[in-house]
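Appendix B. One record, verbatim.
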Amino acid sequence: MAFGWIDAQAEQRRRAGLVRTLRPRPADSPLLDLASNDYLGLAHHPEVVEGAAVAARTWGGGSTGSRLVTGTTELHTELERELAAFCGFEAALVFSSGYAANLAAVTALAPHGSLIVSDAGNHASLIDGCRLARGTTQVVGHADPEAVGKALRTHAGPAVVVSDTVFSVDGDAAPLDALAAACREHGAGLVVDDAHGLGVLGDGGRGALHAAGLAGADDVVATVTLSKSLGSQGGAVLGPARVIDHLVNAARTFIFDTGLAPAAAGAALAALRLLRREPQRAARARAVAGDLHARLTAAGLDAVRPDAAVVSVRAPSPEGAVRWAADCRTAGLAVGCFRPPSVPDGVSRLRLTARADLTEVQLDGAVRVIGGTRP
């Protein structure tokens, strides 16, 4: 029978407690949201929503084609110009998603004969980029610059080191200074995904690379998403102009994909301008994360100290994590639930988002629910 193997895999997932389901949410959900990546609380901000609406009315519902045909509007180039300037890079290229941006950066910058050194904790999009690239990938221990340097010493040709800046599971930060030093010692490029750093880290939310003094360097490339701090959708690659020109000509997820919808570009641009005008939002997100972590640990929960806006709480098992998240939802709180294979260390977690717009009352209520429903 065609696809008969699917039933066996479904049964294996059920027995392991790893079944995933979609939960459509209403527009007026009564749940307190600690599950989304809306770090600055901008997804529903009137200026961001109006930016999307104006762009849709002006440019239509879709971009109508790939970026190299009809999918590049003046709005796209405006967003790229302002995003690059804000983050401190020479140029930017917008994609339909952060996933597509990561695939583009890794595959186009790791040709045949090159070495890719990839952190064991990297996001799935970076991992898939490594799998699709023509270079050879060597996975090294999590946040281990010495292992990166050792891997680079074994290769005489072109090389690139690939890492998240803030890892999506525990919210811990990569040692960017040490990674950059290892790359420069061996003439390698550094490609980092700043999806969880943009809008949260750096001066006014300019990102982890800006904070580390690496933004704009000719051997550093960053990818970002527009769907987290900027409350929209899409992604971008930031870097030297010659790297961006290369992606336009070589990145398959740019050449063959339909351009980002104008509404998403308009929303992201409005959010970027709002963040530039209100830089305190970034500091507020970090402060909320620290406060949430302190409250959770005071309640006796095993929470990981955050380096940005992600706070994770260890769960006893995959089944326990699922039940815990479901009980939180029943009590009015939406939290993320990470289980294998989404977590590289096999430890299931609740994943919480410390949004800049959360109040003291909401934080109190969230910690009370999480502590009161623990397995």
